[in-house]
Amino acid sequence: MQKKLIAAAVAGALVAPSVMADVSVSGSIRTGVEYTGSDWQVADNFSRLRFKASSDLGNGQSAYMNYEFRVNSAQGSIVTGDTQRLSYVGIKGDWGSLSLGAQWSTAFNTVGTFIDKSNRYGGTGNTCIQYRMRDSVMLSTTLGGLSIMADAQMAAGGDDIDRATVGGLMSIGGVSLGAVWQDNGDSDCTGVGASLSLGGIGLSGGFTDTKNGDSGYGINASVAGLWIDYEENDSSDGVITGSYGIKLGGGASAIVEISNNGSDTMGIGMLRMDF
After folding, report:
1. How far is CA 107 from CA 164, 217, 261, in A?
2. pTM of the model as a whole
3. End-to-end C-alpha distance for the chain, whole angstroms
4. What is the pLDDT along the chain (275 residues), one digit of tens a residue?
5. What is the 3-state secondary structure (H, E, C) of 101-152?
């Protein structure tokens, strides 16, 4: 009987799936005291718990995954709903990468990030830019100094392809340039963005346009932890946002961000701990 048990255990070990060796857990807790324009509250600022793993497939190829939960740190709960955080699986190699799931959009990676660098209140100038996209497949590759990305979004019950996007990024010295175009039926999106780093000062901005919809833009500057931004679109007045952050060490930082849209002022003082 003992020999049979040993044999069964060995056979089970041989057929059991291998465990990926490279697994990491990380996240960020971001909680602050916020003035909403009418009252004060303790508020979460998109805290998250993240699991990442990768596996060597041989021949220079690897598989990878990212699985995140959004956490409301002010209430001690998990936040549910579409594209709250990122969950995707992919394969990559010298040729580039292919990933599927809920992930950062091509439009945000190539243009949106130039416009919105805020901790909480930015995004007015990103009129047609998705931040995170669900039900998506993304392909990215590099040709010389040009990074090319393309994605297709295919939600259940919709058209075969609901949105298709292609964009590119190029960096030359301290200058970065980005452009994107998205096929979205009667709401096609076009955008351009750029940034410049010079003598410790960062300048960035971009323009977005929606077919049969709004256009918008944003410009911002950063120096020594201070960031100031102005954004505007056709449907709203200009929004001025500023923030200042101090690194406290050990992954901790303190951030203050204030925003005004011409009639209301909002602000948050936040403690952030990355791990």
Report:
1. 10, 14, 25
2. 0.88
3. 49
4. 444 444 444 344 444 445 555 899 999 999 999 999 999 999 999 999 999 999 999 999 999 999 999 999 999 999 999 889 999 999 999 999 999 999 999 999 999 999 999 999 999 999 999 999 999 999 999 999 999 999 999 988 877 899 999 999 999 989 999 999 999 999 999 999 999 999 899 999 999 999 999 999 999 999 999 999 999 999 998 999 999 999 999 999 999 999 999 999 999 999 999 99
5. EEEECHHHHHHHHHHCCCCCCCCCCCCCCCCEEEEEEEEEEEECCEEEEEEE
